[in-house]
Every structure is written in C-alpha cells, then in structure tokens.
Amino acid sequence: MSHVARVASTAANTLTEKFDIPDVFSTYLYTGTGAAQTITNGIDLDGEGGLVWTKSRDSGGNYLTDTVRGAGRLISTNSTDEESYTADTQKTVTSFNIDGYSLGTDTGNWGHNFSSAYDYVSWTFRKAPKFFDVVTYTGTGSTQNISHNLGTTVGALIVKKTDGGGLANWMVYHRGADSSSPEDYILYLNGTSDRNSGSGFWGGTAPTSTQFTVDTNDNVNADGDTYVAYLFAHNDGDGDFGPDGDQDIIKCGSYTGNGSTTGPEINLGFEPQWVMIKIATGTTDQWVIFDTMRGLVTGGDDNRLFPNLNNVEAVGDYIELTSTGFKPTLGADLVNRNTSEYIYMAIRRGPLAVPDDATKVFAIDTATSDNPAVDLDSGFPVDLLFTKRRDGGDSKVVPRLTMTRMDAGSTGSEGSASSFCEFDHMDKVVRLPFMGGASTVDYMWKRAPSYFDVVAYTGNATARTISHNLNAVPEMIWIKKRVNTDGGGGGQWCIYHSALGGGKIIQFNSFAPYSTSDYFPSTQSSSDTFSIGTQHQVNGNGSTMIAYLFATAAGVSKVGTYTGNGSNQDIDCGFSSGARFVLIRRSDSSGDWCVYDTVRGLVAGNDKRIEFNTEDTEDTDTDSIDPYSSGFNIVQESEANLNVSSATYIFYAIA
C-alpha cells in the first residue's frame, strides 16, 4: 500500500491512517480472457472491503459487486432487476484480494471477463472514512435510520433493492440536487429523468455523518426486502488524505449550464481523474462517466460511458480538465444545457505522495520498428511519451492530457496523436505504425508530486500566474503553443530553468539564452502556480498552450546546474545507483540538448547520444559521460556541449 503513516490517537483507542488516492480508488483497464484472471489494482478489498463497478467498453453491461454482499453476486445499474447470484462463482468475481480481485471464466456473461474480443474498465472504491462506504439493510416498511461509517458529509447515496420480489429502481440522493433541501429529491441511476420531488424516500431528512434515513417507498424500504446502499463522501477542506492527512479527494456538487462551447468552469480545488455528471433540472438525459485512463482529453474527444444504458463506449468532445477542476466544452443537454442544473461526482487525480522509486514514474524503451504496432513497456500508466528517431528526425512529444503530437524541433502547431499511439493501457503505451518502421528510443513519464506535471491553458496576453499540481516550486518549465489563434505566428519551445533565474528564456534550438521578462517574469513560481508574461509564444491571446513542469524529487530526479572545468568531473544528483537518463544543455551560450540513457548505453566508454533539438542521427562513437554512483560523470574535456572551462550548463537527470 502507498499510504505513508499510521497515527495513533491518545484521545481514543483508534488508529487513523493517512491514505493516498491509489489506496482507495482505481480505474483499471483490462481485456477479457474467458479464463480466470486476477486484477491487481493495489486496493485492499480483502481486509478493508469496497465496491467493484465493471463496465464493458465495447459490448455493454454495467455490473456492481461488493464485499458486503459477497463474491458471485451481481447487480446491474442499467436494470431494475434484483441481485443475481451465480452459484458457480467462477462466472463472476471469485475473490476479493489484498491488492485487487480475481475473476472467473464469466462464460456467457459480458459483464466481467467474457473473451479476448472485449475490453473492460473497472472502477474500484475502497471503504474508507471520508471517501466511501457500503452497507446492507432489511426494509421495515416504516421510516428507519441506517447507520454507516462514512464519518463526514454524504455527497451521494445510491440505494438498490437486492432481494424480496418485484423490480426496483436505483434511488439516488445527491447533495447538489437542490441548493436548500436535497433530501426532498431523488434521481434514478437506471433512468434519464431529472430530479423527482416525490415523497417516501429520504423522509425529508438529510443524511448525517453516521446515518441516513429511508422512508416507506418500496424502492428503499419495503418490509422484509433487502437493500444495498453505496455512500460517497463530499470533502470540503476536511479531507484526511495525502502525506499530511489534509487533502480533499472527492467532491459532489452542482453547476448551472450555459449552453456554450465555453462552459462554466467547476472549481474543485484539484484536477480530477474521474467525473460522473447528470442533468438534474429542465430536461432528461443520460448519466455519463468520464475518466482519464480511457481518455478524458483537454481540447479533444473524450471517451464516455453511460451507467444507465447497456451501450458501448462513445466518443465526443464534452468536457475538459483544468488544474483545479473541469468545464463543459459543448452546449449539449448531456453536460451543458442553458440554465439547467447539473450534479456531479469527481475524484482527484493521484498520487499525492512524492515518489521514492524512479522506476514507478519513468521508463525507457526502444523499438527497432513500429510496423506492426509496438508495445512500449513502462510498468505504469504513462502521462507523457517522448519519442526520438535514432536514424535522424524530429522528436515526437505526446501528453495523455491532450492526446496530441508535437515535434520538439518545430515551431508548428500540434496534430492528432490518435494514429501515433494509444495511452489506454495500465503498463505500457502502444505505438502505432507512423514513423515508417524507424528505430526509436522512447521515454515515458508519469505525473507525480515534486517530480513532473502537465498543464494545458489558454493564453490571454496578460501577465499572470497559472495553477499547477506539481506541489513544489517548478525548477524547469517547457511551454509550447499548441494551436495559434493570436496572429503571432508559430511558437518556439520556451523553457525556464531555475539556474537561469527569472526573466530569462532558453529554447529548443541552438540559440543562446537571453533575458526578457515577456516570457517568464523575474518573480517566478510557487508550489501551486507558475508565472508567465505577455509574449505570444507563452500567452498568445486565445491560443491554446501546454506546459511541462519538472522538479527535484530526492533520489528520483534532479534539476541542476554545473560549471565546466575542461576536465573530468562528477555530478552529484543524490542518487543511490546512478542516473538512467541525463539531459544537458549549455546555458551561457548556444548549444544542443544532449541526451544519454542506460538503455541505449551510458557506460564507461563510448556512449550513444541523441539531441532533442536536431534531426541528427544518433552519435555512437564519443566517450562523453560515464556512470557515477550518485549521478553521472562528465568525461569529455572542453567539448562545448558538455564541459568548456568556466562555461555553465543546466541538466535534468532521473535515477
């Protein structure tokens, strides 16, 4: 588990654990096999309990299994049917494990594991205070209070009859269903209708941190029938998550649509990875779920699923992410009808802890050809792919956030990456036939605090600060104009580096750095914002931009500088086993962005060097740098790109 501490309370005989987001929530993608398989998502379902919600992406079906009702018991969100129990549990979830769950053969059931012809997504919610709880109860036919262990504000409550005869709707309480009395309204998770003010559901009583009320309606409280209730928290500055136990990770709220392609911006205080939305007033439409693993793209098409329908995954540009929330990008009833009210549930992107193992956030792979498609193994979901041809050619830069492709050596606008690579995998990127079968080296980053972040924003030609989620002061920032709409022409890659100081700019070309506050003001960044000036290449009015932020994470990455000495010298990065990746650029004059790595060969001898800013072929016959236990060693004496006496250099290294 990735939580960082157990803190004993002396005031009460309890233990409070500081959980990170991956401890309690997972979006996991997999392909069916028709044979038993295990889903390892890092969630302790065996010891702590929780919910597994599975949806086929290309064959329909919505199936929920939870640890309270037990393995083998299925219930479908797009159906009014009661719980189904498969005596042969090999056909469903067979066990709940300390790090995920196991699946059986699922013969004839498309809900979990039918065959290799079907792809699936599973959303796993672990029981944890201030995040999620699941309880079962028996109806009485009279108003009753049901205890729960959420321990905070109930953001959303979903109740379903599981046994007792007759069909029953999925009944939803949501704190955003009404601004003053949400307890007077219900919505149907299995339907499209807007909020209903019918009586007999919640007894006109809002749920508390320890209980909720069900009234006399058979959908929630028929005498002798059994029910399951799923409770989702709403954090409002009271979340107990992250290394310091003070971060919010789940929000349940509402917003008013404006019918525009520039929809209202919903400020969650964090960037989400999972969003569920439903129109609540004015008309009817589907429930819709977006997540970043399947593809929730800023400035492009999103993959969406409908929990109330037996439909396959659909694609369209409906919402986009911001560093602090999300906003609709289409004036459609599904997410943004003018003057209508919408409810949502959003879960924060993680992790919140600084990484302590570089192999979990950075990977290197090589490919001798991309025809046919090639798997680039990472071991983690990738947020940035940087591909460089070894036989000469541009570097391709592709972030998950936008799913667009840019060239590191070009000032041109972005292009679609849909024909270049696929990010919807848990441990790799699939690179599609695109580069004519060229031999490449491929670098892969995962976003993590104090290490690496990606921010998309729109320029306004006014000096300002931009929010980010690096949770540390950025030490290096790369900014590129994505699409030019400001009339200022194309955009260079504009780079800030802390060793240069504020008011200076360096670019992905061979030109020397220069001083100007129009790009990066002298007063630079903080742990939650970075500063930009008015120059069109970083802030062109109306133009879309993307920024990559890098920082030093102890023992994992190092953003630094050194002075050339014309002789051999060691560069200490604080690593325990040397650097796997090194990027160096002269910072007081012109120079190339030289890249070395251990996969191609960073050895005591000739190294294989590529340059991010040129189309040159890989250099294989120069002894430039050598391994060094805590970083890397500069071998070349007096080479302009690496070690001229008294010259200054900036670098970025990863362990």
Briefly note the structural class of the backbone: mainly beta
Helix content: under 10%
Radius of gyration: 26 Å
Describe the main β-sheet briefly: 6 strands, antiparallel
Domain count: the total is: 6
Low-confidence stretches: 1-15
Query: How many helices in DSSP terms?
Result: 3
Principal-axis shape equals elongated
Strand content: 35-45%
Strand element count: 53
Task: Tell me, rounded to a whole number, the average pLDDT.
Answer: 92
Notes on the structure:
The protein is mostly beta strands and 655 residues long. It has six domains: 5-126, no CATH class; 132-233, no CATH class; 250-348, no CATH class; 358-445; 452-550, no CATH class; 557-654, no CATH class. It is 2% helix and 40% strand. It is built from three helices and 53 strands. The protein has a six-stranded antiparallel beta sheet. The longest helix is centred in the N-terminal third of the chain and has 4 residues, at 21-24. The radius of gyration is 26 Å and the shape is elongated.
